[in-house]
Amino acid sequence: MNKDSIQDQVISTLKDFITDWGLDADITPSTTLVEYLEFDSIDVIQFTVELEKTFGNRKLGFQELLMKDGRYVDDLSVSEFAVFLIGKLATA
Amino acid sequence: MTKTLLIGLDGATFTVLQPMLDGTCDEGVVMPFLADMIKGGYSATLRSTNHPLTPPAWTSVCTGRTPGHHGIYDFVRFEDMGDEMFFTLYDARDIRTETLWHVAGREDKTVVSLNFPMMAPPEKVNGSLVPGFVSWKHLRRNTYPDTLFDRIAAIEGFDPKELSWDFERESQIGEAMPDDELYSWVANHLPRDKQWYNIGHALLSEDNPDLFALMLDGTDKIQHQAWHVLDPEIWDTDVPESRRKVRALVVEYFRQVDGYLAGLHAAAGDDCHMVIVSDHGFTGSDKVVRVNKYLESLGYLKYRSHDGSDAAKRRDMANFANLDWETSRAFCPTPSSNGIVIRKQSTKNPNGVAEDEYEWFRDKLIADLLAMTDPDTGEKVITQVLKREDAFPGEAMENAPDLTLILCDHGFVSVRNLEPQVVTRPTPIGTHHPDGIFIMSGPGVAAKRGDEMSIVDTTAIVSHAMGMDIPEEFEGSVPGDLYTAEWLKDHPVQVAGHTDAQAAPKASSNDEEEISDDQREEMLAQLRLLGYLED
Asked: Which domains occur in chain A, in start order?
C-alpha cells in the first residue's frame, strides 16, 4: 500500500462514515474532524474503529494519535490520520 | 397477521394514567383506546426489578431473567484498577442470557424489536432490530439487518436526529427548569416517539412479524422532569399560565401515545394479543441524599482533591463518583445505581476490605446507612438496604453493587461533593417506583384486574401468546387467571425446553480479562461525551 492509496482509503472511509449526517462536506487531506465536520469525542473513537476495520480488522494503537502528554488533542485532519496509518502499516 | 404485540411504555404508572383513563382529570378521558383495552382485558401492577431502573428492568423483559442472571445493573459499569476507577457503559455484549428475540428466532418466529435499551450492538435476529439509546450518527451501524437503515430512512418524515438518543438533552434530567424551558424540553420529546411509531407502524404493516416489540420512552423522560404537573396529588390548576401550558403539552403527549397504541393495534388486527408493560412506575421525590458525602463523614471514602480549576469543579459536579481511589473503601458509583460498592482487598487495592473482614464491615456499613437522617426532621432517609445476594441472586451477581439502597421517597442518591448531606427540594421531581403496569388484551384474555405480577412474567406471557413453550430458565410465569378456562384448555401453558446460554450476546463477544489501552481510551471518550469526564 502506498501513501496515496492509504490517504484515499481514509477519505473514502470518512465519507462513508458521515453518509447520514446531512453534511455537504468536501473531504480533502486538510479536512479536520472537529472544526469542519463537528465530530465529538465518541465520533472520533467510532471513526478509529472504522479505520481499523478498513485496514485489516486489527488494533492500530490510535490512542498514540489521539492523545498527547496525557490529554486529548483538539482536532485531527485527514492527512494526520493518513500519516499515522502510513507509519503503523509500514511497521506492521 | 402478527400474533403478538409487546409495547413498552417506560416508567408508565397507573398513578398518572388512571385519571386520564377514567376521565377524572380536568381534561376528561385522554386515553380512550387504553381505557377500552383495560375494560375488556387484563391489567395488574407489574413489580419491577429489585432496583427499579431502565437498563436492568428492560433487559429482564427482553430475557425473562432477573439481573442476577442477565448481568445488567445500571447504565454505567466500572472496572476497579486499584488506584483508578474506569467507568464505561453497559451494552448488549454484557447480557449473559439469551434474548426473547433469539429464542423466538430459534422457533422460526419472526421478530421486530425497536428501541429497547441495551440492544446495541445488535445481535442477529430473525427479523429486524433497532436498539434504543444510540446516537443518531451511529444508528446505521447499529441496526440489523444492515439494509434496515435505508429502509426506514425512506419512511416519510424520517429524521434520525429526532429519533435517536440525545445524550446532552437527557443529561439535563434532574435539573430545575423554569416553565418556558421545561415546555421546550418536553416539546423536543414528542417528535421522538412519533418517529418510533412511524417506523414501528411501517415494519408491522409490511413485515407482519410474529412478534412486534416497540418501546416508547417519552413517558419516563417527561415524568422525570414534569412530575409536578402530572401527579394528581400535587397538580393544582391555580398556577401561572406558563405552568398550565406545560401541563397541556404533557397531556397532549399522552393523548398521542394513546393514538399510537390504537394505530399499532389496528395494523396488527383484532385477533392479536397486545401486551403493554412498563419497566417501573413513578412517584415524586423531594429529598436530595448525598450519600457519598455521608460516607466521607464516617471515613469510608475520600473525595479526590482538586486544584479549584473550572475543569476540576466540573468533574466534581459530574454524576459519577470522583474519589481518592487509594483510600476509599466503600462508595456509591453513580446516582442511577443507588448502590454501594465495597472495595475488596487485592494486589491492585491493598487498602481494600479483606475477605475475613467483609461481613463485619458490611454489617457496620448497613447500620451506618440506615442511621442517616434528615437533620431538619430527624426522619430516616434510607429505609432499606438490600444485600447483593438478596437483591440480585444469580451467576452474574458478582457485578452487582454489594448493597442497594431504597430511600424514604424512592429517590435516586446524589454522589456529588456538596453540603449539606440532605436537602429538601421545593418542588418534587419524578423518580422511579417499583410498581409499573401490565395490560393485555386479545383472544381468550380475561377481563379483570389481577394481582401484582413480576416483570419477568412478561416474557413468559409473550412466549406463550406466540404459541411457544416457555423455556425452563424463564423466571416468570403466566398468571392462572390471565385467560379464560376455555381458552387455556385449547392453549395450555407449557414449560419446556431451554434457553441457549451460548446464544447470549456476551457469549459471542470478545471479552478480555484485562482492559487494553485502546479500550480504556474508548471508555474515556464515551464518558467525556456524557459529561462524566473532563479533558
From this structure: 3-91 (1.10.1200.10)
